[in-house]
Amino acid sequence: MKMHRSWRSGASRNPFWILVGHFIQRLLAGEDENEGGMSIGLGAVLAILASPGAFASIFLLDKYSTLMQWFRHQTFNSYRASVADEYFFIVLSMTVTGLVMVLRWNRLFPDRRDYANLAVLPIPIRNVFLANFVALLSLAVLFAVDLNAFSAFFFPFIVTISDGKGGSFAKLLLMLRSHGATVFLSSLFSFFAIFGLVGLLILVVPKRFFQPVSLCTRILLVVVLLTEFFANMFLQLFSGHLSGGGNAYAHLLPSFWFLGIYETLAHLDNPATESLAQRALFAIAAAIFISLSAYALCYRRRFVRLAESLDVIGGVQHRHRVQLFNWLLQSLFPSSFERAAASFIASALTRSERHLMFLGAYLGIGVVLTAQTVMDGLNARTASSIPGPDLLAIPLMVAFFILTGLRFAFDMPVALSANWVFRCTLDDPLLNPRPPVRKIMLLCVLVWELAILFPVMFVQFGWQFAVVHTATVVILSATLVEFLLVRFHKIPFTCSNRPDIRVLIMRILGAVLAVMILVPLLASIEHGMLLKPARFVFGAFLLGGAWYWILRYRRGTPPWDLRITFEDTPPPAFELLKLV
Amino acid sequence: MLEVCSLTKCYATIPAVDNVSFTIRPGEALGYLGPNGSGKSTTVKIITGLMEPSRGHVFFNGTDIQQDLAAYKRLLGYVPEEANLYPFLSGLEYLALVGRLREMPDSLIARRADAMLQLFAMHPHRHTAIAAYSKGMRQRILLIAALIHNPQIIIFDEPLSGLDVTSALIFRQLVTELREQGKIIFYCSHVLEVVEKVCSHVIILHRGKQVAYGAVEDLKRFQVMPSLEAAFSHLVQEVDAYQTARDIAEAVTTL
């Protein structure tokens, strides 16, 4: 006990371990503290990370319950059936670890702030770098264990129990070992692969291009990780079958390699998976080697020379605007306020990491759902001259995700302390901020609706259909824009945002309902109208009703609610019941 | 004694600091002046051990600081130009981090941090996250962090940035007190008036080169100028400040 205490006190006094603790704290801290960003405690992070695995394990009770099997008159080999679910857990481990790494991307390596604060202290610089790595690795191991903690016991347990022969204790241990090792190794692979990727980018990409390249890579990673995760969840977890199991290309996915480890460790006697297991082990070794080498090289080439790079001001950058762009800007946004707002919105959207990451993730989910709709549409395609509702829903789905993604992003502030520029310069408080916002939203959908959708439909189904379908999509997009902006009295990104759980739930529910019900419904209505053109009257009536509601709502808004808002008002402390 | 000999630092082939030499004895404060881009920050980085010179040496008590950088840094207090602190830590947590990394006993850190936070009027905000601090509050935390381990050499790089009038007055007096305690003080600033009042010696840098070095009074006498500001303008100013100001005012109204 005494020895343990003295070790603890020694560790707490040792500058290296103090640095490790500091870097762990730094990794957990909010991304944008200067904006008053949220810093999440370790406990909260662990609880959040543990929940998907726990829920998935509980969800699987239905499949493996012997009682449910008896009701359904089902009999199956639970060990063989567990392969599909094991794949889900592998994807979950890789996705969550990957997302954590992508979210902490800018904190993975020591930066200028660390250099400014720590390099003047009497600690060797290499210790700073090493401490950061130890902190990162400790968190990765902790997250990997936490993420799979519940499923590591529960999943092997329900699989073994559901075995018709009762399941022996030895079998349970075997399953525990196979599942635990597989998911843990998947998490570690994801960790080292992304860590290595960051290191390689730092080493290979010239400093001038690093920020844009790094941002594009992050967005791409988010899209890929979410695509794989949601595709797997929708296609497999609900169906119980391994998606793409028979597809040769699926075996190029790292997640499939780890399935090889599971099958080999669980003695499921599948010779095809042995080579996959070897590939997985090789991939882990390669990822560790690359990431460690890149980290060491980054220390030598970048961190030690950081002080010098701080003094060198980047070369003068020239931006050339083409005349056409200036003409377009003048024509689309005639007033100076509109031009100022439009330029600000475009710059913030294309340069703010937080917003691009959010849009990347949101559109990633959209890509998965749209891809699913495309597959359904292509499978259900007939020789008819009119495409089915699934194909008609594709552009609506794309427009929906782009427009709602933009609308959600507009509520996320950027450099809030700089919004005094707008507050001081706008002399008319009743100035309507909607026109430039509306035009930007419409531009984001109209461009591809006219440049891609119309030609594709023209080639595939003829000009009449192309005109009608494109017009329908354009009108519905415009209606959605108006609906989304109905209570919008802000200049995007300039208003503080108080996280309100009710609003968040409403938005998530609204988006889910729109994707699951409204978009397919609108596509079916359009399909019906195309079959019988007389039904267009019904469509026009519905649309007229929606526009009438929007205009009526807007007219009924009291003047004080039409002021441009820069501060999100807190919910009232008490509300009048208005019983009389 | 801190001795800088023929210090030169080149970026690619361009010298940022060119053959600069000076000496600071205990109890002396050296003012380091120069316009933007004259090489002040580069010199500061070299004498804090953050950067190695291309040529020349920095000696402390006769030993090259590069021989045992960690030992040198233990004796060094540094207030950087930019208050680039960890925003997720509170002021007190930051001081504790710095103190522990300097291997100070926890009790000593607590005593000194508490006393200095009181003296710098930061005590009520000690548990507030640095993200919520104003520029002046961050600067005060940096000052405390630089002094908490009782350093022998103190390097100030624009220390008054963001400080209010009272804090600036206290700071000026503090530099005088520290000098009297025998500390070696290197003071890099644009505020000539303060340098004139708190420093015993001054160096004026222009395009990386040392254009004047000596006691403040000697410099004024030698340049036949009434103040340090006038001497500085005479030595380094390339544009007519009054004419430029007139041109700007004219551009505002006519263009």
Question: What characteristics describe this protein?
Answer:
heterodimer, A: 580 residues, mainly alpha, globular, B: 255 residues, alpha/beta, Rossmann fold, 2 domains, six-stranded mixed beta sheet, four-stranded antiparallel beta sheet, 10 helices, 10 strands, 42% helix
Report what the structure shows.
The complex is a heterodimer of chains A (580) and B (255). Chain A has 580 residues and is an all-alpha fold. Chain A is 73% helix and 0% strand. Chain A is built from 22 helices and no strands. In chain A, helix 6 runs parallel beside helix 9. The longest helix of chain A has 37 residues, at 125-161. The N and C termini of chain A lie far apart (70 Å). The model of chain A is unreliable at 33-38 (pLDDT under 50). Chain B is an alpha/beta fold. Chain B folds into 2 domains: 2-75 and 151-254, Rossmann fold; 87-150. Helices cover 42% and strands 24% of the residues of chain B. Chain B has 10 helices and 10 strands. Chain B has helices spanning 40-47, 69-74, 91-101, 106-119, 135-147, 165-180, 192-198, 216-223, 228-236, 241-254; strands spanning 2-11, 14-24, 29-33, 55-60, 63-64, 76-79, 153-157, 184-188, 201-206, 209-215. In chain B, helix 3 runs parallel beside helix 5 (135-147) and helix 8 (216-223) crosses helix 9. The longest helix of chain B is centred in the C-terminal third of the chain and has 16 residues, at 165-180. The termini of chain B are far apart. The model of chain B has no long low-confidence stretch (mean pLDDT 87). Classes of the chains: A mainly alpha (580), B alpha/beta (255). The interface between A and B is medium-sized, with 30 and 32 residues.
Shape of chain A: globular
Q: How far is the first residue's CA from the last residue's CA of chain B? A: 55 Å
Query: What multimeric state do the chains show?
Result: heterodimer
Instruction: Report Rg of chain A.
Output: 28 Å
Counted by DSSP, the helix tally of chain B is: 10
Based on the coordinates given, report the CATH architecture of the largest domain in chain B.
3-Layer(aba) Sandwich
